[in-house]
Amino acid sequence: MEIRMATEKETLEILSHWRAVLSEATAGYLETIQTRELTPLAPFFYHEFDYMVYVTEGIVRGWVGIGEIREVYMQESKGFISELYVLPEFRNQGIGRKLCLEAINKFNDAKYRSVQLNVFKGNDSRNLYEKLGFTEVSSLMELELDE
């Protein structure tokens, strides 16, 4: 088992999974929206964004997207986890937890004061994030209107 920064080839492999990642990460919320125009490149708009991969026997089993964001209210840079994904056939083996902990350690080594992420209501990863000590900071609410 190895957790390390993704190679260019591995990054392209990761990006090929963007529809599944988007669907699962948003807990089905975006399935009603036409995703054909959505781009998998959005994470690269984060400062110094990259992927870390969990590899066993040469096979990428999961990844975590890490980068830096500028927090608007406090005017400080924070570590940011943009994506956590474990391929379905490798789930329930602690890979997601190991990837998150490695990302947190990387942010700690870089002297960030905190790490943020965004998680949709209904996303099963929320339980993992809470167990790791993440707490809710804000809540986005929506009201659907009649057409």
From TrEMBL:
Residue span, N-acetyltransferase domain: 1-147
Pfam families named in the record: Acetyltransf_1
Coiled-coil intervals, chain numbering: none
Record key words, sorted: Acyltransferase, Transferase
Highest taxon, organism lineage: Bacteria
Matching CDD domains: NAT_SF (cd04301)
Protein name: GNAT family N-acetyltransferase
Organism, scientific name: Sporosarcina jeotgali
